[in-house]
């Protein structure tokens, strides 16, 4: 077993109380600090740690932990305010060849720091380092009375067993990262994240640094909003040239304040930001909001480093500010013109302009906000943090995001999947016009556009992705006011036939269904509507309909099992408008709650959308255009369908050999340090390690070997083979004429080989031979490792026209069973797989296995930059990959679920 020498960067992570610690590998200069931590332990803690009270043990531990270069040994330290507050170490155990690699571990936490989660956090990071080194298990010796450390192991989330021997207990921890472990990490991360955000969003005291004497300054506007908003805690201004600003006491510096504020809002010039932030950190401020824009690289680095060093959470820079409408805070630390209306929508945006627009729109609708965060340049606090805050906040029932970038998309997706099970998560899919990767070297990379990648994230996480701010507001209005539809069947009701037809068209265009109504239901409607009414679908009530008749019609439709939503289209007429028979009253005066969503289209309405107050306390969203209503309904229906499906799981796979695959990759990268395209033999070998089905193959570098290989591959002389030329860098063989098909007998094989050799000369390293596959549906499957999003699995129609037809769908790995089903049904060609026009279905189980194994291979091998299986031939009796191309790059594994705060390089990118 070769020990890894890859050292992780220093990282910062949150503890259970919301404070921050630094975690890194131990260094020789840490020896005195590690020794101090052990020497300050109580005699009882020393006995539990070393099984005896002996000062020499502390010295030996410090020496071992801080001496680098011991083979098979790693030690991590946790530091707070520059002092070591915890250590964790492992030492590999002797092993026989072929045995699983295990290591002994030891853990210690500083006196007085127990209960903060330091030991658990260190263990999570030690597990990560050990898994990189190929270690599969930990063992730890403890006294049976050491309940605290035994609980740490038990609660870690990994499979653990204990063996008692008198007063001692030996714990064995298996390091396989499964869903149970990730869920445990999620719970710990959520507790820590929410605790760290309390000083930011529910501060007990606030100071504004840079509140100017000039009425038009940003800092003064924030101070005014905080004061007028009724902030429940203490409020101060920081300005060396004033004693009072906006009726608020002012002090020369943060250090001069009468108390240490939880939150400081910075509206100072860019050159002063890092200095003021340093003052805040020194006195113990817990959170910063930096409104200042235009920081250069040095200023930005200094601000970020200061916040990490002092454990301050940071919103911004270059932001509009934050607000929280809870009674215990009443925080409006923004320079928006109008205060946010209290409500149920949590809002986080990167664009201040988008933030102002959403605050205005949600206020006008009456939806309001529970909390609002303008993330700005997003150095620290992100959409992921806000999702976890809203998840814990009982006031928040809608999560609204506008994100222009993702720091850790896989962690964000995991959090969003969990949160979307309890509340709708909405976003604007910004940046769809990006040109994509035009210079892609394979079909897979060509298909994997940024739009497709973001779409995969949104689809898998259950996020409602709209195409504009207006569409987001329209959808929010419906989700805020009405229940979720159970499906896509819409009943359209109108008091003017032509408008009903337009609304029906809008519904169908959006992806909804407008089916003919049940015969019995249609009869019920005829009995309550005026003579001459049409009761198919759309329902034309005629202009003579009264409020009572319209109410009876809508109530019957909303209660019927064949209808999922009701869309009422009304135009004003001289017959009833403004009277007690006005059909609009059917929507606003309903005596009881309708079980299915009802929306309205009022063609004379000026506002794009508004909420009509209703007697049942469930407002009815009214839209000026039927297209807006239809888009909102289809978003709600798709979200309801996603939420109704059980969460997926990643199925176990049999027969895979990740260690063997890693060895193939490492051997190739040893020969090609800059990476490249492995030859067909290595490609086939990698697929074999994951049991991905492929045709039999043979490699030949001369004519005689090619003839012998062809005879070996086919059962008789009439069997046909394919010959594919190969040289490093060759990707699109068909385009270059490097492929010969349907070769029968030795003469044709000989002629084809000679032709390829003459055509490509010494550039051709050899040929790859396979028997011709039987006909089937030609598909495409591939993987791209996105630098930010991780591995993306693509699937769709294959063959030579795969890029031209662009019939592809994508999902982020690792794929769950639900993801695979969604991936198979998403392309336009999907009906061909399930039996189109009487044809039998292909081997769907085989396709599912192929995609799951491809996903696992991509997750196991971060060096796998691109994988291209095209074509994959699917038949009723099996699935097989005919052609394989892989590209490998020297990359290290990255665990997106390891608890750590954002690093500087993430926001700099």
From TrEMBL:
Top-level taxonomic group: Bacteria
A Pfam cross-reference name: ATP-grasp_5
Position of the signal peptide: none
Name the record gives this protein: Bifunctional GNAT family N-acetyltransferase/acetate--CoA ligase family protein
Stretches assigned to the N-acetyltransferase domain: 21-188
Keywords: Ligase
Alphabetical list of InterPro entries matching this protein: Acyl_CoA_acyltransferase (IPR016181), ATP_grasp_subdomain_1 (IPR013815), CoA-bd (IPR003781), GNAT_dom (IPR000182), Ligase_CoA_dom (IPR043938), NAD(P)-bd_dom_sf (IPR036291), Succ_CoA_lig_flav_dom (IPR032875), Succinyl-CoA_synth-like (IPR016102)
The species this protein was found in: Streptomyces mordarskii
SMART domains referenced in this protein's UniProt entry, alphabetically: CoA_binding
Molecular-function GO term, any one: ligase activity
């Amino acid at each position: 077993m070769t020990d890894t020498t890859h050292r992780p960067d220093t990282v910062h992570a949150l503890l259970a109380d919301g404070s921050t610690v630094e975690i890194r590998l131990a260094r020789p200069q840490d020896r005195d600090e590690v020794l101090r931590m052990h020497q300050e332990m109580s005699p009882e803690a020393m006995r539990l740690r070393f099984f005896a009270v002996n000062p020499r043990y502390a010295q030996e531990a410090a020496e071992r932990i801080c001496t680098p270069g011991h083979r098979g040994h790693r030690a991590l330290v946790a530091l707070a305010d520059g002092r070591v507050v915890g250590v964790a170490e492992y030492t590999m155990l002797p092993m026989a060849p072929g045995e699983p690699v295990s290591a002994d571990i030891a853990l210690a936490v500083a006196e007085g720091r127990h209960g903060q989660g330091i030991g658990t956090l260190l263990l999570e990071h030690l597990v990560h380092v050990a898994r990189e080194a190929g270690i599969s298990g930990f063992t730890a010796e403890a006294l049976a009375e050491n309940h605290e450390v035994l609980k740490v192991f038990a609660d870690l989330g990994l499979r653990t067993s204990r063996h008692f021997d008198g007063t001692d207990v030996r714990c064995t921890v298996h390091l396989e990262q499964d869903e149970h472990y990730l869920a445990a990490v999620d719970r710990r991360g959520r507790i820590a994240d929410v605790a760290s955000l309390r000083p930011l969003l529910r501060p007990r005291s606030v100071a504004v640094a840079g509140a100017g004497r000039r009425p038009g300054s940003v800092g003064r506007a924030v101070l005014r909003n905080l004061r007028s908003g009724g902030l429940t805690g203490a409020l101060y201004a920081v300005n060396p040239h004033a004693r009072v600003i906006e009726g608020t006491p002012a002090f020369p510096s943060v250090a001069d304040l009468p108390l240490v504020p939880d939150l400081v809002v910075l509206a100072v010039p860019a050159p002063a930001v890092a200095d003021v932030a340093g003052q805040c950190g020194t006195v113990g401020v817990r959170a910063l909001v930096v409104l200042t824009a235009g920081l250069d690289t040095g200023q930005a680095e200094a601000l970020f480093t200061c916040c990490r060093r002092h454990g301050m959470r940071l919103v911004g820079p270059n932001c509009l500010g934050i607000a929280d409408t809870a009674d215990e805070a009443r925080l409006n630390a923004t320079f928006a013109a109008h205060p946010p209306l209290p409500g149920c929508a949590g809002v986080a945006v990167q664009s201040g302009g988008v933030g102002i627009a959403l605050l205005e729109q949600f206020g006008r609708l009456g939806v309001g906000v529970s909390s609002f965060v303008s993330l700005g340049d997003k150095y620290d606090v992100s959409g992921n943090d806000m999702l976890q805050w809203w998840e814990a906040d009982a006031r928040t029932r809608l999560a609204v995001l506008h994100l222009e970038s993702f720091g850790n998309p896989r962690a964000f997706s995991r959090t969003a999947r969990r949160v979307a099970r309890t509340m709708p998560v909405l976003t604007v899919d910004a940046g769809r016009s990006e040109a994509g990767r035009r210079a892609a070297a394979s079909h897979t990379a060509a298909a994997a556009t940024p739009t497709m990648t973001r779409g995969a994230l949104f689809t898998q996480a259950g996020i409602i992705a709209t195409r504009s701010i207006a569409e987001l507001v329209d959808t929010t209005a419906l989700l805020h006011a009405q229940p979720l539809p159970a499906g896509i069947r819409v009943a359209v009701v109108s008091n003017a036939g032509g408008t009903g037809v337009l609304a029906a068209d809008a519904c169908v265009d959006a992806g909804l269904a407008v089916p003919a109504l049940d015969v019995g239901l249609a009869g019920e409607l005829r009995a309550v509507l005026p003579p001459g009414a049409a009761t198919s679908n759309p329902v034309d009530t005629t202009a003579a309909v009264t409020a009572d008749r319209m109410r009876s019609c809508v109530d019957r439709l909303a209660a019927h099992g064949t209808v999922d939503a009701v869309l009422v289209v009304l135009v004003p007429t001289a017959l009833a408008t403004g009277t007690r028979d006005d059909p609009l009253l059917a929507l606003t005066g309903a005596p009881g709650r309708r079980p299915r969503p009802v929306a309205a289209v009022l063609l004379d309405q000026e506002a794009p959308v508004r909420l009509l107050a209703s007697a049942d306390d469930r407002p009815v969203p009214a839209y000026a255009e039927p297209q807006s209503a239809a888009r909102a309904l289809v978003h709600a229906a798709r979200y309801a369908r996603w939420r109704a499906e059980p969460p997926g799981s990643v199925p176990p796979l049999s027969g895979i050999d990740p260690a063997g695959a890693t060895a193939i990759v490492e051997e190739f990268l040893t020969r090609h340090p800059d990476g490249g395209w492995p030859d067909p033999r290595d490609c086939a070998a990698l697929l074999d390690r994951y049991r991905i089905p492929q045709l039999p193959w043979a490699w030949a570098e001369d004519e005689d070997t090619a003839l012998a290989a062809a005879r070996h591959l086919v059962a008789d002389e009439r069997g046909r083979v394919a010959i594919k030329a190969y040289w490093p860098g060759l990707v699109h063989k068909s385009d270059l004429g490097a492929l010969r098909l349907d070769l029968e007998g030795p003469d044709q094989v000989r002629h084809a080989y000679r032709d390829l050799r003459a055509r490509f000369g010494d550039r051709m390293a050899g040929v790859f031979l396979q028997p011709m596959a039987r006909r089937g549906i030609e598909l495409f499957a591939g993987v791209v490792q996105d630098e930010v999003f991780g591995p993306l699995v693509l699937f769709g129609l294959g063959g030579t026209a795969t890029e031209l037809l662009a019939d592809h769908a994508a999902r982020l790995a690792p794929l769950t069973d639900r993801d695979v089903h969604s991936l198979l049904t998403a392309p336009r060609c999907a009906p061909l797989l399930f039996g189109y026009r009487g044809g039998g279905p292909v081997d769907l189980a085989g396709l599912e296995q192929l995609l799951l194994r491809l996903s696992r291979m991509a997750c196991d091998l971060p060096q796998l930059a691109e994988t291209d299986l095209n074509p994959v031939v699917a038949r009723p009796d099996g699935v097989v990959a005919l052609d394989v191309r892989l590209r490998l790059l020297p990359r290290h594994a990255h665990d997106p679920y390891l608890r750590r705060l954002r690093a500087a390089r993430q926001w700099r990118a």
